[in-house]
Amino acid sequence: MKADPRGVLSGTHFIDGDHACCEGALAAGARFAAGYPITPSTEVVERFASRIPVVGGTFIQMEDELAASITLQGAVWGGAKAFTVTSGPGFSLMMEHIGYAAMTETPCVFVDVQRGGPSTGLPTLPAQADMMQARWGSHGDYEIIALCPNSPQECFDLTVKAFNFSEEFRLPVMLMMDEVVGHMTEKVVIPDADQIEVFPRRHTHKSADEYLPYATNGDGVPEMAHAGEGYRFHVTGLTHDERGYPNMTPQTQDKLVRRLQSKIHDAADRITLLEEQQLEGADVIVVSYGITSRVAQRAIEMARERGLRVGKLRLITCWPFPEQRIRELAATAKAFVVPELNLGQMVREVERAAGGKAKTILVPHAGGSVHRPEDILKAIVEASR
Amino acid sequence: MSTLDVMNPVEPFLRTDRMPHIWCPGCGIGTTVNCFARALIESKIDLQSLALVSGIGCTGRVAGYVKLDSFHTTHGRAIPFATGLKLANPKLNVVIYSGDGDLSAIGGNHLIHAARRNIDLKVICVNNLIYAMTGGQTAPTTPGHAITSTSPYGACEPAFNLPHLVEAAGAVYVARWTTFHVKQLARSIGEAFQKKGFSFIEIISPCPTLYQRRNRLGDGLDTMKYYKEKSKVKHGAPTGEVGLTMTGEIIVGKFVDRDRPDYQSLVHAQMVESLGERYVEPSENVCSCG
Amino acid sequence: MAKGRVSIVVERCKACGFCVEFCPTKVLALSSAFNAKGYHPPHVVAPEKCSGCDLCGMYCPDFAIYGQRLPAQKETAPAAPLPEVTRES
């Protein structure tokens, strides 16, 4: 289905990632945001607050991130597409509700504009140290999808994609930005509404008598209903059966939690978006994401100028992790070089998937600025030896 | 026998496929549900427009037993969830049905902000003076000297006076009844449905298994008799004076019934003033469905 | 002549005693019978006094009892007390 033109600011813009993210949400059909100010994410909702009253929808600044992260879910069950934005400390606070969204299969988007941590850390400076948290931050077994833009343009495009994935698979999707991508101003082209694909809410067509809120057929994703439509359904964070009723037995637990996992695993091919460059015959493959991938690009070019055969694998989707692809590449490459703005997070997944078949070399950075191309180049050169 | 086979008036509101419920003998939560059902019948409210949100705890389980669009959310966060529901679909009548610990401890921040904003929500707070579901720990409402599992030598924190708290925060309708006052409670719930803005009804209820038993206050019936004997109806009483003690007087009644513009009216007025014709009402928040 | 009648869902009852205590005309008492859970459910001891006010129903935390008003009887109708109706569940 095509985007609703009322929310699409078509044209060529010179805006930063935070602003582009807001426009992506509006283009995707988001008409509700609940937020709480936190640097460097605040601009997303500031823009939303000023745009939404003329598009038609609601923004509410809640009293804390605990509230924001659940208010948006109430709005989803009331019929809206909804999201929130935050950074590290707020992301930590939102974890319980990310789990609630996963458990109740509430389609929604959480944007984390990553900054230096832990704790208050570096509010105005970048890091990529919430990557594992995005995957594992809440308790229990659950899946999320995480996308990592590396430009303001991608902040627009991937926000649309995040909403689409959230509706298709009924789960919370993390948009993992970082402070540099969020505050970097670049050209952003927003197409006409009829050029933007939007995934509609998977609303049931069954009657109230037939409808079971958590029954599925085929792809493991149940159909949704909204409050106020006469379905009289029940939603709970307790382990539940197809009726949505609490059913706290090991059998129901196994069935439910495995389905929450398999609905994503089974579709991993479609969900894992990658940018691949010269992987064929590469000795060294640089695996990167977000702002680091921009620096890595420079380092790769410098390495190629020296005659090294370097490939680039950019993770646009970080979760689910593309382990199949890494496994394939590990068979032919000598080494993976993984620069990231943390002391080693996604590198663990690369190493795990490589299974010892290729070396995995981390180029860490504790955060606060981006890598220098020379640091990544040095690792590439060493890996090529 | 068919003319006599009229159903229990509460039955259509229950998910009978989930009966019997988990509440203990003598627990008052079921009693409050009867009053709630009675209020729904009498106010002739369109059940399709009703959404019920609860948090975690014994009272939180109400959401699972009522045959309405119902949401059993996270501990303390029923109110912000309900806020989202209401703002996304203003036609909904949103009721929050939760306990004293859920609403005033972990949920305290959201309670006061929702009252401040005067969001059009109806909060039914069953106050059994304890955290019952988890085995009887001290709550912010536990009266002084009470024995609980986390105050084995007697509680010594001053307890919250919930009507006072929510009035100060801005609620437009504040009432307190006990589970003995079934008729008045049903009436208050009905009044809250007619009210636009943040309504709060506190219902003092027995927890015979934990609160009463540990404090040697008898069983549910003994507690109900205590409510009958020691309650005093004082409509309009200054909420600062309605604090509770373990065995003392219980002031009940409708304490606050005032008018303030509700949140959505305020937003509307502000937007119209600032944006004039450019303002687009959020009423069409419903997203396109497949 | 009873103006009302009580129905009891025996298997739901947990013998809390609210209905017995708060019936304004003392229609009920806990019986010596047991339900499947081992509780003594109430039974009607003074059916003619039932007004059908349904206070028992409003008090019952287990949704196990309710009262209903009977249609008004003609004066010539026989004044036989009506038995209580009990259901299993």
Structural description of this entry:
- Chain A is 38% helix and 22% strand.
- Chain A has helices spanning 17-28, 42-55, 65-77, 88-93, 95-104, 131-136, 152-169, 179-183, 250-265, 268-271, 291-305, 323-330, 346-354, 373-384; strands at residues 11-16, 30-35, 58-61, 81-86, 108-116, 122-126, 145-147, 172-178, 185-190, 234-236, 274-277, 284-288, 310-315, 317-319, 335-339, 359-363.
- In chain B, 34% of the residues lie in helices and 16% in strands.
- Chain B has helices at residues 29-43, 62-65, 78-88, 100-106, 108-117, 162-169, 182-194, 208-214, 220-230, 263-275, and strands at residues 50-54, 69-72, 93-99, 122-127, 173-178, 199-204, 231-233, 250-257.
- The model of chain B has no long low-confidence stretch (mean pLDDT 95).
- Chain C is α+β, with helices and mostly antiparallel strands and 89 residues long.
- Chain C has a single domain, classed as Alpha-Beta Plaits (2-Layer Sandwich), CATH 3.30.70.
- Chain C is globular, with a radius of gyration of 13 Å.
- The N and C termini of chain C lie far apart (28 Å).
- Chains in contact: A-B, B-C.
- At the A-B interface, strand 2, helix 2, helix 3, helix 5 and strand 10 of A face strand 2, helix 3 and helix 5 of B.
- Strand 10 (234-236) of chain A pairs parallel with strand 2 of chain B, so a sheet runs across the interface.
